[in-house]
C-alpha cells in the first residue's frame, strides 16, 4: 500500500460577501444583535496559501496589504491556532494572503481569510476535519466566518452564524465602490443602537422586533431576477454607516445615476454595492462611479460563487 505524500503547499480561494438583506434585531445581553442576514458570495476574493514552516507566520500582498495585521490577531493566524489545538498539534505554518478584498470594507475580508486558513491548514496537515466541525470552529472565530466556508447564498440567523443555504436561480452582476479608509463593525452596530435610542424606539431585544427574511427577496434570488432583487435590497446598518460617513450618500447617488438597478451599503460599510442588469451594464455603472470621483476604486464582479475552495496543491 502506498502512503500519500503530504502536500508541500495548499492554496485556497475564498469569496467576499455582500448582504442583500441585513435585518438587525435588538442588542442582546451579550452585546451581539440577532440578524436576518441574507449573505451572497461574490467572485471578488482572496487567496490563502499554506506551506510548512518552523513557526506560525503571516505575509500579505495586495493593494491594502499595509492595513492587515501580521501578528497573532490576524484571523488567518487565529484560525490556524484553533484548528491545530483541535488536533493536538503545533500551528507551524506559513500563511500567505493574496488580498483583493477591501480591508474593513464590510465585505468580510478578515473572515474570508479565517475560513480559507481553516481549509488550507486542514488539507496541508491531512487532518480531514468534518465540514460540520469546520463550521463550529469558524463560528468561534467570528459571525461572518461560517458563511465564507459555505459560499453561495445563505440565510444567517442568530448573530449570522446559523446558516441555511438558499437557492439562487442565476448569475447576478455587481459593482463595488471601495471607500478611502474603513469602518469598524462594532462602531457601526453601536451607531445603529444610538440612532434607535435617539428616535425613541429603543435598541434592545425587548424594543426591536425580531428581523425576518423578506419573502420577495428570497423569490427574486431563486428566480435569478435582478430587477426584483434590486427592489428588495435592504440593510438596517445603512443609516448608521451613512451617519458615520455621510459622503457615502454621494457614492450611492452616483451609482444610481449611472444606471444601477439597486444600491446599498455592503454590510457595515463603507464599501457600496450596486446591482446591475447584466455584465455590460456593470461596466457602464463602474465607469460612471470612476468618473464621479466619489470613491477610491471600483470593482466589477458577479456571483453567487462557492465558499473557501482548494484551488492548488503542490
Ligand atoms: C455586519 C456583518 O458583516 C454582516 O454580515 C456581520 O454581522 C459582522 O460580522 P463579524 O465582522 O464577523 O463580527 P464579529 O467579529 O462576530 O463581531 C464584531 C462585533 O460586531 C458586533 N456584532 C457582530 C455581529 C452581530 N450579529 N451583532 C453585533 O453586534 C459586536 O459588537 C461584535 O463584538
Ligand atoms: N486577514 C485579515 N484581513 C483583513 N483584516 C484583518 C485580518 N485579520 C484581522 N483583521 C483586522 O480586522 C479588521 C476588520 O477587517 P475586515 O476586512 O475583516 O473588515 P470587514 O470586511 O468590515 O468585516 P465584516 O464585513 O466581517 O464586518 C481590520 O481592520 C484588521 O485590523
TrEMBL record:
Q: What protein name is recorded for this chain?
A: 4-diphosphocytidyl-2-C-methyl-D-erythritol kinase
**Reactions performed catalytically:** 4-CDP-2-C-methyl-D-erythritol + ATP = 4-CDP-2-C-methyl-D-erythritol 2-phosphate + ADP + H(+)
List the NCBIfam families: ispE (TIGR00154), PRK03188.1 (NF002870)
Metabolic or biological pathway, per its Swiss-Prot or TrEMBL entry: Isoprenoid biosynthesis; isopentenyl diphosphate biosynthesis via DXP pathway; isopentenyl diphosphate from 1-deoxy-D-xylulose 5-phosphate: step 3/6
Residues binding ATP are 102-112
What GO annotations for molecular function exist for this entry? Answer: 4-(cytidine 5'-diphospho)-2-C-methyl-D-erythritol kinase activity; ATP binding
Q: What SUPFAM superfamilies does the record point to?
A: GHMP Kinase, C-terminal domain (SSF55060), Ribosomal protein S5 domain 2-like (SSF54211)
List the GO biological process terms: isopentenyl diphosphate biosynthetic process, methylerythritol 4-phosphate pathway; terpenoid biosynthetic process
Q: Give the similarity note.
A: Belongs to the GHMP kinase family. IspE subfamily.
- Please give the Pfam families that the UniProt record associates with this protein: GHMP_kinases_C, GHMP_kinases_N
Instruction: For this UniProt record, give its keywords in alphabetical order, as a comma-separated list.
Output: ATP-binding, Isoprene biosynthesis, Kinase, Nucleotide-binding, Transferase
**Active site per UniProt:** 17, 144
Q: Where is the GHMP kinase C-terminal domain?
A: 218-292
Q: Which InterPro entries match?
A: GHMP_kinase_C_dom, GHMP_kinase_C_sf, GHMP_kinase_N_dom, IspE, Ribosomal_Su5_D2-typ_SF, Ribsml_uS5_D2-typ_fold_subgr
Q: What is its EC number?
A: 2.7.1.148
Q: Which organism is it from?
A: Peterkaempfera bronchialis
Limits of the GHMP kinase N-terminal domain: 74-152
Q: Which Gene3D superfamilies match?
A: 3.30.230.10, GHMP kinase, C-terminal domain
> According to its UniProt entry, what is the function of this protein?
Catalyzes the phosphorylation of the position 2 hydroxy group of 4-diphosphocytidyl-2C-methyl-D-erythritol.
